[in-house]
Q: What sequence folds into this?
């Protein structure tokens, strides 16, 4: 593989990431959120109920930021805080899946349909190659995130 092809794919990947951010920012604003709050609703839809600490771990947000996020969602009746039935000290964040889906699906319905058509236009072998790329890229991002999180920087004075 040539260096030029690698550079071309890297630039395309960056362009994809930037375009994704722009699309999600647009969806967030139209759905009445700031930033990427709606993406965190997606985590809750996919994973179901969880504690604030689990949401912080999943998103990489601080526990304080997660508390604010949950407050904003609760004010819009998109989540509820409930005591765990087996451990009353533990508070679970329970998504209102029906309301979240009703709020976000109009923005993603056509996009999801078009994405499925794009994927369907590839052969099984091509899809397996795309899948392999995503799995390797995800693993790399997780490892990079962990490495950066563990690195002490002057900006944090060694604090995490």
A:
């Amino acid at each position: 593989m040539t260096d030029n092809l690698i550079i071309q794919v890297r630039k395309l990947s960056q362009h994809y990431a930037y375009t994704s951010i722009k699309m999600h920012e647009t969806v967030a604003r139209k759905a009445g959120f700031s930033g990427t709050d709606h993406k965190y609703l997606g985590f809750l839809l996919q994973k179901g109920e969880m504690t604030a600490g689990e949401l912080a771990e999943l998103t990489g947000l601080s526990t304080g930021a997660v508390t604010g996020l949950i407050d904003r969602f609760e004010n819009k009746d998109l989540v509820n805080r409930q005591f765990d039935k087996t451990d009353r000290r533990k508070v679970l964040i329970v998504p209102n899946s029906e309301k979240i889906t009703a709020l976000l699906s109009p923005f993603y319905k056509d996009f999801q349909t078009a994405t499925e058509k794009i994927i369907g236009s590839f052969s099984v072998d091509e899809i397996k190659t795309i899948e392999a790329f995503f799995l390797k890229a995800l693993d790399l991002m997780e490892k990079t995130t962990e490495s950066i999180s563990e690195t002490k920087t002057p900006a944090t004075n060694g604090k995490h």
Notes: Helices lie at 3-30, 37-47, 52-59, 63-75, 97-120, 124-150. Residues 3-30 form the longest helix (28 residues). The chain has one domain: 3-120.
